[in-house]
Amino acid sequence: MTKYTSVIEVFVQVKPDILALIWGPIKLLLQFADSLSKSFDAILDTMEAIGDKLPLFESYSQLFSESDGVVDALALFYRDILDFYGVAMNLFSAKHWKMIFESVWSRQKDTITAVIRNIERHCLLLNEKINLEHITEAHQSRITQLDKCQQDLEYQERQEFGQMESYFSPVLYDDDLDKLLRSVCDRTGRWLEREKAWEEWFDACNTSARLLWLEGIPGAGKTHIASLIVDRLRQLSSVTLFAFLSYKRANVNIISILHSLLFQLVIGDKDFDKAVKKNLRATLFDKFQSDQRNLKSNTKAARQTLSELLKLAGPNYIVIDGLDEISEIERRTVLNELLEILRDSTETKLLVSSRAEDDISKLLKKSGPRVIRVDDKNRGCIQAYVSAETQKWLGESEFEKDIRSEIMGLLLSSLPAKSKGPYVSLNVMYTLPTVCSPMKACFFTRR
């Protein structure tokens, strides 16, 4: 490759900036790789293989001024070298590339082999009478080979992901989120924007506010607020992992939660960076191949793997709702592991939504959380919800307009002004048909 460079220098001596654009990146790769011996050796081995296939350009230097075909062939070699450069730079430009090098570099073997084969074919052009048809055919062949490598790699990644998904069978909470978002009224959660604790936690650049606790009595609307927070984060393309825990869901434990968060991360959202997703999946599959039994059932192994992947993902948010709904022993384990992730992954932020149970309070307060008491803020949202549902029900009833207005007033006036939870409100909603049947008879009797 050194001889190749010397010939190119002759060819571009009138425009030395071209050489810098083409050859400079190769030197940059070596500077990157020098900080890790394994990557440095891998880059050198690949460059040596490429260099071995390059022809003796010294013998062709006199032909540059005589043959446009030789110049066109030379351009193909440029493209070949830059193809290799592109593969390597995509890896070295990844965040924490040292952590993923071994998992990702091996996957590029077929692409690099294709580059070397392209160089071999392009060498043959210099030994033939070169014309435009030859150059066009070689250019198209190069594109076809690289496209096939990319398609094969994508197929391999899909197969690997399917294998992991089948083995772990992770529980995702997307259906729960959708159901919750469909049940909230328009006014729900507007007060959140005025909360300093929320503003500080929401700001990814604010590293002092990484733990937020949504605390409140049963039925205060914590879960609906948590669902709105998840939706808000996802709309802004933030890396957001979440779980809505419930006593109704069987087999909820720390392992199932960690597996859910792991797979949410590697699945990503529609706007998730594709290169980052590929690196995350490659790293997870590497862990899966080397230690799948521990990854399946060992809490520490699963937690450490999640922490490692979160570091690769950049700024991210974890939202856990309903922690108080699982057993005390299990929630203590869950919270301890989540707080350990928070300590280990410095770009992670955690939100916990729960009642103020003693064990939860003690663990959280040791980590200095920002706290928002939901039942003090959500009263207006609950009353708005009851009003909307009552109007909807009455609109479908047979009452006349003036009677519907009177019923609405009677029902809403029965709600305690200082109600902090929806139990009274829900009782109203569930008993509407029962209450209104005799009420209907009463109104008709009066008329």
Automatic annotation (TrEMBL):
Does this UniProt record's set of keywords contain Protein biosynthesis? no
- Does the keyword section mention Iron? no
Q: Which UniProt keywords apply?
A: Repeat
Organism whose genome encodes this protein = Penicillium cosmopolitanum
Xref: InterPro entries:
DUF7708 (IPR056125), NACHT_NTPase (IPR007111), NPHP3-like_N (IPR056884), P-loop_NTPase (IPR027417)
Q: Boundaries of each NACHT domain copy?
A: 210-355
Protein name according to UniProt: NACHT nucleoside triphosphatase
